[in-house]
Structure formats: structure tokens, C-alpha cells
Amino acid sequence: MRALRILLITVVVLGVLFVIVDRVAVHFAEGEAAGKLKTTENLASTPDVSIEGFPFLTQVASGTLDDVKVGIKDYDATTGTTGRTIRIQDLNADMKGVTFTGDYGSATARTATGTALISYAELLKNAQAAPADLGLGVTGQVVGLGDGGNGKIKVTVDVRIPGVSARQKVNVLSTVTVKDNTVQVHADNLPKLAGVSLAEDRFRQASDFQQAIDQLPGGIKLDKVEAAKDGVEIAVKGSGVKLAG
Asked: Cross-referenced InterPro entries, in alphabetical order (predicted)?
């Protein structure tokens, strides 16, 4: 009986030690991966990296991590060939089947899904352009973006009419979609302007716009988009996504 008790105590102690070693190892690996990702993507701050699953050491032995979650704050993505950037407020990705080298210098995920949030102020800053000619001397320019409810964007257009000193601001509900890594905003209906009839294609030169968002970390792509309270929420996905190296 005494020998059995000693054996049980030994098993418990070894189990506790294994858990401690495993958690220390995963904490070290998360730090190394975060540092490599910061360097690879030239990030201003260190991202959050969380390696899921237990035990971690058996995953290391297999050479593949089941699930790695990455969170990046204030990521500046490029916007096509203009050289300008657009700030993504929050970018979160869930990486599955991550293979890596021993020093974590290179890591690639089999698949990745996640979300990104772009504020309305940031989207507006990049969408602003010179006032568009709406015909009959009337000009229009997008001056505000906000949540229109039910996944729509409320687009505020500043309309200037010749001979009228006061500006007329009109709101239109717009559908937001994504295609080829480009966010597209398209007005659902034309507004009614007092005394002025505008052709639809003319008005859309002011109300409708698109915003390319390229070179997201690891090569992930835009998938779906929807207007929300604090900005535009984008679903992202990818395969063969490189976390580092």
C-alpha cells in the first residue's frame, strides 16, 4: 500500500511538472513568434500571439501547431498602387495547421480566417477626392460615413447648387461589398433634391467609391464586408498564410 501511495504521488508530481514545463514552453514560443511577426511585417507594436491546445510539447514534436491566434492593433495596409495606406484598427486571425522551423524563423498556416475593423473616419479619409461634377453646375462630395443600420453605410454627400449660398447635405443608404481585395460602396437609391433633377450616373460619381486594401499580413485576402456601429467589419481568409519567414 505504501509503495502504491508513493507511485501515485510520483505520477502526480511528474504530471504537475509536465504542465509547468509545457506552459513555460508555450509562453516562450508565443513570445518568439510575436517578435518574428513584428519584424517580418514591420509592425509598430508587438502583436498578440496565442498558441491554443494542450499539450504544446506534443504539437512541437509533430512539427505542426493545431491552432494559433494572432491579434494586431493599428495595422497600416497599402491601398493599391497609390503608395497611400489605410489603418486597420483591429486585425484578428485564427491560423490552423501551422508548420514551423525550430527557431520560429519561419511559420506557415494551412488555412486562416479572421476579422478586420476599419473606422468610418479612416475610410472617409482615404475616399475623399475633389468634388464631382453632377451636371447643371451642381457638384457633390462625400463628407461623412456612418452606420446606416442593417449592414448599410450612411453616406453623407455635400451638394453645392449654383446660386444657392447654403450647402445641401443629403444622406443616402449604401451597400458595401468586397471584390478583388477592394471595398466597394454603392448607393441604394438616389436622394431627392429640391428643384434639381440629377442623372443617376452623375450622382454616383460623388456618392459611390471604392477602396483597395492590399498586402495584408501573410497574404490573407478580404472575403466579406459589412457596415457596423464603429466602422466597416471585414472577414478575411487565406491558405498557405506565412506568419513569419
From this structure: DUF2993
211 three-class SS: strand
CA distance 4 to 159: 86
Summarised one tens digit per residue, pLDDT across range 28-83 is: 888 888 888 888 888 888 999 998 888 888 888 888 889 999 999 988 888 766 67
C-alpha–C-alpha distance, residues 34 and 9, integer Å: 38
Cβ-count burial 211-235 (b if 16+ within 10 Å, e if not): bbbbebbbebbbeebbbeeebbbbe
Question: Distance between CA atoms of 183 and 190, rounded to whole angstroms?
Answer: 20
Per-residue pLDDT tens over the stretch 177-230: 999 888 999 988 777 665 555 666 677 888 888 888 887 888 889 999 999 999
Query: Distance between CA atoms of 176 and 183, rounded to whole angstroms?
Result: 7
The position carrying cell 509533430 is: 62
pTM for this predicted structure: 0.82
